[in-house]
Design goal:
Blueprint: H1 12-43, H2 61-66, H3 110-118, H4 127-130, E1 154-159, H5 166-177, E2 182-186, H6 192-196, E3 202-206, H7 216-221, H8 224-233, H9 237-253, E4 260-264, E5 268-270, E6 277-279, E7 286-291, H10 300-310, H11 324-327, E8 335-339, H12 340-356, H13 375-383, H14 396-407, E9 412-415, E10 420-422, H15 425-428, H16 435-443, H17 459-468, E11 479-481, H18 484-489, H19 502-510
Parallel strand pairs: 1-2, 1-4, 2-3, 7-9, 10-11
Antiparallel strand pairs: 4-8, 5-11, 6-7
């Protein structure tokens, strides 16, 4: 039996030490509980709770109707430009022609809202595979939100013809972002029924009717040098310029397009969501997050062309070209959020500069109504196509990114974290290739791959290749660039071992061919 009377009472110093030890234990216990709770909430967020304001553009109708903080958000109001008199109409989409936004009021396309709500449950039972994981254990990437909502933003995809992965492009854009509408600008309208069958929020436009008077044929007539240099390089420069003009031209001529819209290259497959815009306290508008592309060479041709049409240095994500960090990045990532107001502002400035600057003589052969975008830029492009010592090339991404960085710095943010992989050799190469051969092929993705493989990818294969191609610690790229059109149609023979799905093949046959020849 313990004799409590014989036990010594602790001294004040001993009591203080005991209290300190107890406090330390409680502190670490509380930190552990907080970490577990935070980690669990971040990985398994409540689907009933609203998304944060910085990651979500989806708000209720009443909130937008009464709020004056973002008066211009997603509106298609007139800016007093002469191009506002011209509106594009798609005869195949009569139901969408009247969905014009009120200048100071948010409106939703009810059919698209219903689509966004029901998409997860009615997408051909593929949704369980759409969300990629960072490893074979199917664990979600830690920093990936459940969804990133952009139900008031449209997407613009300019393409010559669909391929197998076009369906995956559409499904993943809707799954990760819930965009309002996806506009496809195509060369042959015969493929529009197939594209509209992929999702309810798809609008299909004829590329010959987006910018009045601007077609492949009309650009070819005034692009002799561009055609010659294209034949020499094995690629068609007229078509290459046309798709860039269309990405900007939609902001000037498609009135139902959202004020902020995402330009998305047709061969980009989203494997995890990106935060595209952020709210800013310095402006009533949103700050766009511009992707920084870690180029391995200096795109001096883009900088020279920008100087020619703007009269200023091309800005890069890190600053002017003299900045070592900025000089190793550019904005050519294959996707970019643009604002209609700033596209109009930029193209108007270019027109004024070219009319009054040293290159004004290049516009003399144009009719007065043609002395504006894109004919003014096209005149310069054709003139400098054979410049000695390197070609001058126009880049819609570098040009717009530099313009916003210089003119609207408060609404410009650089995202160095986004990661993408183009035709990842390491993900498709057979095991017979050595590691040195892997690296050699991966360094120059323009070289044709020396083997054949299936080009039509299912969701599981997309995720697998996105994981294998990743360089980040998360183990998953954000965008997988899969240039199936090059693998399938270019060169003497196809590298694809599989055929097009029946529905897609029938759509291509209805268009009169493979649809990839730019002069068709």
């Amino acid at each position: 039996m313990v004799n409590f009377r014989q036990m010594k009472r602790p001294t004040p110093a001993q009591g203080l030490k005991a209290m300190i030890r107890f406090g330390i234990v409680c502190f670490f216990f509380a930190m552990t509980v907080n970490f577990i709770a935070t980690h669990y909430h971040s990985r398994y967020p409540s689907t009933s709770s609203s998304t944060s304001s910085s990651a979500s553009l989806a708000r209720s109708h009443d909130e937008f109707s009464s709020s004056s903080y973002f008066p211009s958000w997603m509106s298609s109001s007139s800016h007093g430009d002469e191009n506002d008199e011209e509106e594009h109409h798609d005869d195949d989409d009569d139901n969408d022609a009247h969905h014009l936004h009120h200048p100071h009021r948010h409106r939703r396309d009810d059919s698209v809202d219903n689509f966004a709500v029901s998409y997860d449950n009615n997408n051909n039972n593929n949704n369980n595979n759409i969300g990629c994981s960072s490893s074979a254990t199917n664990k979600r990437v830690k920093s990936e939100p459940l969804k990133t909502e952009y139900t008031d933003m449209d997407v613009v995809i300019v393409m010559v013809a669909p391929v197998c992965t076009t369906q995956q492009v559409v499904e993943r854009l809707n799954f990760h972002y819930h965009f309002r509408k996806i506009y496809f600008v195509v060369k042959q309208v015969e493929i529009c029924p197939y594209l509209r069958s992929l999702a309810k929020n798809i609008i299909c436009l004829d590329e010959n009717e987006v910018i009045p008077g601007v077609t492949y044929s009309s650009l070819s007539e005034r692009g002799e040098k561009l055609k010659q240099i294209g034949q020499k390089e094995g690629s068609n420069r007229v078509g290459w310029y046309l798709q860039q003009y269309l990405k900007l031209g939609v902001a000037l001529h498609v009135k139902d397009l959202s004020e902020y819209y995402l330009v998305w290259d047709a061969d980009n497959i989203a494997t995890r969501p990106l935060e595209l815009v952020k709210e800013t306290t310095k402006s009533e508008n949103y700050a766009v997050r511009f992707c920084a592309n870690p180029v391995t060479h200096k795109s001096t041709g883009y900088a020279k062309f920008y100087k020619r049409i703007v009269g200023d240095k091309l800005m890069k994500p890190g600053g002017y070209p003299k900045d070592p960090k900025g000089d190793s990045f550019n904005y050519v990532c294959g996707f970019m959020v643009m604002k209609k107001e700033y596209v109009r502002e930029m193209t108007n400035y270019i027109t004024h500069y070219l009319k009054t600057g040293a290159d004004s003589h290049l516009l003399q052969h144009l009719r007065e109504e043609e002395k504006r975008f894109p004919w003014d830029i096209h005149a310069v492009a054709n003139e400098v196509a054979t410049v000695e010592g390197g070609h001058y090339y126009f880049s819609e991404y570098d040009t717009y990114g530099s313009w916003v960085q210089k003119m609207h710095s408060d609404e410009h943010q650089v995202d160095y974290s986004s990661e993408y992989a183009r035709n990842p050799t390491v993900a498709v190469a057979p095991s017979s290739l050595t590691e040195a051969e892997f690296k050699k092929l991966a360094r120059n993705p323009k070289n044709p791959l020396p083997y054949k493989f299936p080009c039509c990818m299912k969701h599981e294969k997309i995720c697998e290749r996105a994981r294998k191609a990743a360089r980040s610690s998360d183990g998953l790229v954000h965008v997988l660039v899969w240039e199936e059109h090059k693998m399938r149609y270019r060169g003497t023979s196809s590298q694809c071992t599989d055929a097009l799905p029946r529905e897609l093949k029938e759509a291509m046959e209805a268009s009169g061919g493979d649809g990839v020849k730019p002069d068709r």
